[in-house]
């Protein structure tokens, strides 16, 4: 029963004042880290800066309250930025709210119906490929603000943004580039000197002061967006069947990505603290968090690996730290949000460039390309390219289909059907595993899974004139599907038509169950199934004697 309850309830049973202090400190530090990130990710998503904070506050609190991880920190993440930006550009905020609520409902259903363990069926090459692809799309999306370029159009797709950058490169603002490089330098160098204070906060403060003091001609958040410090208010969108149908594909994208990223973040966190998360509870929490985020004007949320790691490193060990992080952000929204107008856009772009670099996992991708089979490399590169050129749904769909096809080919290649060499009683059996096969008996050994991809290999099993008994040794067959069984039906029929008895040796549990359910055992004869090859050979001799007597 405990596996179905949020981690907070388990943590509070043995909670102490000392742990409370650690959680509060960790929550405050994570909130300081999340502040510029939440604003930056909101802008990258094409929404107002405060909506990033709404997400971290509402979704972050609910997911920590109901989640299946002790240390998960949730909020807006880079993985959603380009997806959300596309939804907002095409369907507006109402469309995004509907899509996010639908995604939340899907996540709730995934958790209720125990889909949490299905994350293991998504190949590592696919997650690596789309993560790197998302990082590349994020980088391309920040080139405009980092270089201070003025677009003549408002491109939505990643490749359109890249073309617009190349077409409008002549409008580049060198001051903006300088501020961006200055911010980027702080983000890279500061952690090497001071680890306690987040580099993104220092970059925001230093770049804002630089632009303000020297009146540099660089766009700030206040130049492009109306900053609001109002509290998020509950608003219910108008649900129409047409809108729901139109937004359902986007909702599925959000739900699948939220599930994958959140559970991957939980797995990483488990390794850092020696804990074990509750995947289905986490999915329910992610669903509830996204619904609440949408109702309070936020954007899609998921577990954030970087903020979760920061929480762990600063002593956070229970969901209380995540709840404190949300409450601190709420205070910042009320008291300090107007000052966000001073943050230069190139600094926001620099922060997101660092986020993209840190999330990209390019070293992992390079290592996989060096060490993996060609089929895995193909899946990785296909997922990467489709993520950049199209979208995540296409990338994951095609990537999974390609991975399945290549896996089936690999399994088919592993399946072998080979006949034993004929050995009479006078042969020398140096290998104790060999058996003497009497004349009139042929033995075929099948190794590997028997399924539709390998069915054509069974064509070599055909009765010959001198055959009296055919033995199929299946100890190396772990599983079989209906297509392979159909091929065996053909072999059995051909043998029976030619007066050849067919024996089956050491059939494993799954193939035996399928044979029995389909009536194959009844057609072949219950007594034609033997526990091992020795029993099958003795049975073959008996059948040969009966054939000769007949």
Which residues sit in consecutive blocks of at least 5 with pLDDT less than 50? 423-433
Compute the gyration radius: what is it? 31 Å
Helix-strand pattern, N to C? HHHEHHHHHHHHEHHHHHHEEEHEHHEH
Please bin the fraction of helical residues.
Answer: 55-70%
Which class of secondary structure composition applies to the elements?
mainly alpha
Give the end-to-end Cα distance, rounded to a whole number of Å.
66 Å
Q: Largest sheet, described in full?
A: 5 strands, mixed
Descriptive report:
The chain has 550 residues and is mainly α. It has helices at residues 7-12, 17-44, 49-66, 78-112, 124-147, 158-167, 174-193, 199-213, 221-224, 241-273, 279-295, 305-313, 319-336, 345-360, 362-371, 374-389, 392-414, 482-497, 509-518, 520-524, 533-549; strands spanning 74-75, 302-303, 416-419, 441-447, 469-476, 501-505, 529-530. A 5-stranded mixed sheet has the order 3-4-5-6-7. Helix 18 links the parallel strand 5 (469-476) and strand 6. Helix 5 crosses helix 15 (362-371), helix 7 crosses helix 14 (345-360) and helix 16 (374-389) runs antiparallel to helix 17. The longest helix is centred in the first third of the chain and has 35 residues, at 78-112. It is elongated.
